[in-house]
Design brief:
flat, mainly alpha, 4 helices, 50% helix
């Protein structure tokens, strides 16, 4: 998507934009999974803009994106992860996301204490 102008983006079908953004997100997630410092760390994926009718549905993100990354060559291992719907505009899903993160941080603190460097 790098240098696309606003007019180019507005004339591009939403499905093409979704695919481009999901590809970009996939690359970032794969790079996180490849980093040994993040080994075993829970991952929360927030599916924002769920207040919009043209949003990418959570099930599509889970099945067509997150599952492929975790089951793919670079994912390699099973990891505690969750995909949650949210809307920054309405605040929907924010409390659930914070609660999930807090519960995982408490568990992670006991089972995987931080390493001081």
């Amino acid at each position: 998507m790098g240098n696309a102008t606003l007019s180019e983006l507005s004339s591009t079908p939403a499905s093409d934009l979704d695919t481009g953004r999901l590809d970009e997100c996939r690359l970032v997630l794969e790079s996180v999974l490849e980093n040994e410092d993040t080994s075993g760390v829970p991952i929360l994926v927030l599916a924002n803009k769920q207040d919009r009718e043209d949003c990418v549905e959570v099930v599509r993100i889970k099945e067509g994106f997150v599952r492929k990354v975790f089951e793919g060559e670079k994912g390699g291992n099973v990891r505690d992860s969750r995909v949650l719907p949210c809307s920054a505009l309405t605040g929907t899903g924010v409390n659930e996301a914070v609660e999930w993160l807090c519960s995982r941080m408490a568990f992670n603190k006991e089972s995987r204490p931080p390493v001081m460097r």
